[in-house]
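subagent[fold] <- orchestrator: predict structure for attached chain, return tokens only, no commentary.
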Amino acid sequence: MRWSSGAIRKRPEAPRRLSAWLSLGVVSSALALGHAADAVAGDQKILRFGIDATGLGTGDPHRAASRNDRAVVDMIFNGLLRYKPGQAPAIEPDLAENIPSPDLVDGKQVWVFRLRRGVMCHSGPMTAAYELTADDVIYSLRRSADPERSSYAGEYSGMSVARVDDYTVKLVFEKPISSILFFPKVADYAGGFVVCAKAVRAMGDQAFAAHPVGTGPFMFDGREAGGSRVRLAAHRAYFRGSPRLDGVHVSYMPNFDVRDSALRNRKLDVIFGSEKTGWFTSIRKRKDLQVDVFGVGQVITIHLNTKRRPLNDVRVRKAIAYALNRDIFRALFAKGVVENVYSPVPAAFLPGGLTREDVSRLGLEYRYDRQKAQALLVQAGYADGFSLKLVTSQRGHYLTNYQSLRDQLKPLKINVEFEVVAHRTMHKRIRGDENGIVIYVAWRPNADVFLTRFFHSHSIVVSGQSPDTNFSHYDQIDRLIEAARLVRKPMDQVHLWKQAQIKILEDAAAYPLHYVNLVYARGKHVDYGHPLKAAMALYPQFTEKTQIINGTASE
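subagent[fold] -> orchestrator:
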């Protein structure tokens, strides 16, 4: 097996050499200090992780939007705060010494963070290891706010960051915000990851995305030619202590059967699993394997285009809602994997969501009622139904739910046809406003982000000021979203978020379907080192405490 290595260097490489590495599509090294390039020593503890993707999309944490990329950046980077591994949404200090409380200064809200001393940035292809300071934090947060360099820039508007001293930074908001909104901005999630400024400046954004340099328990150590496997090595100078693993190898295996076989034959230690009942039953018969089902659940919502005929008629949208049965969708997956939701924000995980009791009391549950659905279609002038042409991904939750949608709408003479395409192609085409109905799988850190990205008029696909994922073309709750941002009392904020969702449901702009718990399988020789209740990183999380107890997988 041929590997390219990005191991620790004693001196920086020239920019010309780095450019050559990138032209080959891999980050390579002429000097491999401390890590063998072609084999794993028998006494090394290497965790082998099989993931459902064709390769690493980006190692830049401010661009990493997919679950598969986030797993890698989670191991490489830290935030000022972090979601406790396996225990989200609980938060604790990370690069910061503690969780501060804000002050009001001249009407502005000020958060002061004091940094841990002795936090070391990884050695990179063009930089030696160095101590992280306030300059790195300032650089990172300004980078997160730059729309040219970050996918999360909109979440940092109205915020400035300044240096107090080498180990202290202050964040200033023109308009005060609640802790519910603030903490995700500086936690180890999305734009909150802190990069090592010297490395980014030395390499440039493109090279940095191919060879990320952070402060986390594992450092980027190369990728196999072709990009089918990424190698991470233990960061021995990690501020929480030297990792118990020597490294993590991430293998990209989009074919589930291949991943499953590799786990069963001890070629892999951990894999992204399946939601199918048969697989659960089979795995649980193995004494050497274990299935883990945990949150936070990715929310699946059916978005209805409120501006496209015939869906621009609220009676048609409500007819579709009454024609659907959440329990039929849920039964397609193994017990415990999928749970119903009744509002766009999942009440089980985040403040501001609506429970089943809430929506039932308001008459907005849209409990399955085919007769009511048919009557609404007749009133709208579509007694003979209509046709929809959609595009979907081949991935399980997309394709399976689209198939069920088609089957459940058929008795109403609503003919749904869909084209199955590659996952990335689907994302591109639905953002081009191709679908009248979009089934979308996503997780967001709080109610504001859920509502802003899916239902604020600025986020309308194609035509919005900042086009994102408003597939419904919905523009009726901007005022409520914006008002909630200005409220500092969490309970008042929650009230406004709930009012916004009540309006969404009244207008049937979306049909909240279910959330999907994460499913991973591992050999029982793997100890994650933390409870596994919920992970904001959307994988089990491998930290300095993760260990292999009774050996490792074989090559």
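orchestrator: received. Logging for downstream: The radius of gyration is 24 Å. The longest strand covers residues 289-304.
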